[in-house]
Amino acid sequence: MTDNDSEGLKIDAQKAATRVGLTSNEIIINGGSPLKGRIEVRGAKNLAPKAMVAALLGTSASILRNVPNVSDIRVVAGLLALHGVQVTRGAAEGEWRLDPSNVEQAHHADIDAHAGSSRIPILLCGPLLHRLGEAFIPDLGGCRIGDRPIDFHLEALRKFGAVVEKLPSGISLTAPNGLHGANIELPYPSVGATEQVLLTSVLAQGQTELRNAAIEPEIIDLICILQKMGAIITVEPNRVIFIEGVEELRGYDHRALFDRNEAASWASAALATKGDVFVGGAQQEEMMTFLNVFRKVGGDFEVHDDGIRFWHPGGPLKPVTIETDVHPGFMTDWQQPLVVALTQAEGVSTIHETVYENRFGFTDALNKMGANIEVYKDGMHDDARRVMRREFEQAAIISGPTPLTGAEIEVPDLRGGFSYLIAGLTAEGQTKVTNLGIISRGYENFIEKLRLLGADFVYEG
Length: 461
Ligand code: EPZ
Fold this sequence. Notes:
Layout: H1 3-19, E1 26-30, E2 36-40, H2 48-54, E3 62-65, H3 71-82, E4 86-89, E5 96-99, H4 108-115, H5 125-132, E6 134-138, H6 151-159, E7 163-167, E8 170-174, E9 183-185, H7 191-201, E10 207-211, H8 217-229, E11 232-236, E12 240-244, E13 253-255, H9 260-272, E14 276-280, H10 288-297, E15 300-304, E16 307-311, E17 321-323, H11 332-342, E18 347-353, H12 363-368, E19 373-376, E20 394-400, E21 408-410, H13 414-426, E22 430-434, H14 446-452, E23 457-459
Ligand EPZ binds near residues 46, 356 and 415.
């Protein structure tokens, strides 16, 4: 396709969008076309911003490659620049260079204004305390899928010797006597709290033992980055991570791990639309639990060296019971996009959401489109459970198959938003999805990818 062609397409799309009065935050999807083709996923949205924060710990510049063009990245890049980090785009697509030579404190109001809807600022605590002896973290954003407290983070920081003061607009931290190693046991294998401990302990005085740690692939990739910088981190059996503090860390050069949540989302879209999508960059090892479920629902997949092909082989989709869990279990981020495919399965599926206490809100809109999903806010008893029942868990019962019809729906959160795109692609007729901006927090160039896969939609370019 020449530039003129794509320019022409763009003008057509704009004309069409203007005709239907769309803003750039909305899309109208004409359902019924199976997604077919190849798209590429780049670095993980849940790794790359943390890797950028880790660069603060180095005495020299770092290079991070395979970085996705999503708004969470831009928010963190802005936050780091506010603190004096020289953040520049490298020559190659997806390459960022971060030079922390002149780290300085930023004004609270600027930090607050810049943090946006991201949750990443909380991870700046340790690195800023090491570099400046102080840090201010504004109230956090992030998807409304639960209360999302930070008590594990603050508890850990206090154990390292930080003094935490709650302010009306956020938290202020100091480390009057520096930061020293600590023995920390997390009440739950929290990804964020594990990252907090890793980013604080590597330059702390002495040893840190972290128990009940998260061991998601993104955590291991962050550990690889810190090891490249000179950290001494040992991942022991039974979720124990042992860190020996060092005097100094240098910059790193790292290619971010692929985004398995985005890969699982496109796989679910292929299933729901009876399509065939090759996800370039996807790898089997980090997605094994998803692949098992994908196959049980009736999907088929083929693992290649440069990605995974996901397709609907024909025949009915089958119901499944899913229990979300920490890695290596079925990730909570995978359930929302898959729910739409389960509305087309012949029978009753059950999802036990054990990680977040309120991650089924998005199903209301799907029911408006004809789905039959019942949410049990106190969870559901199930003798065949393999994942320990948690106090706040909820359950959803999805009865299918239920034809979906187009509706106007508003994106509630990142993964729920992507599930709405899938619902629109699967439904009969037109679906208008609004508040699209949330999706670009975690899905790079998703409009372009929909176009590449043959989706039928109108969007103001
Ligand atoms: C990360 O969130 C991801 N976000 C989430 O992805 C992901 O769902 C989650 O890990 C679990 O894998 C990023 O990495 C930016 P947690 P995080 O700390 O670190 C409770 C997506 O769609 N908890 O592992 O915030 C918490 O309430 C997003 O990409 C506390 O109680 O998740 C939750 O119930 C959504 N106190 C559970 O632990 C704390 O101090 C897991 O949270 C911290 C967490």
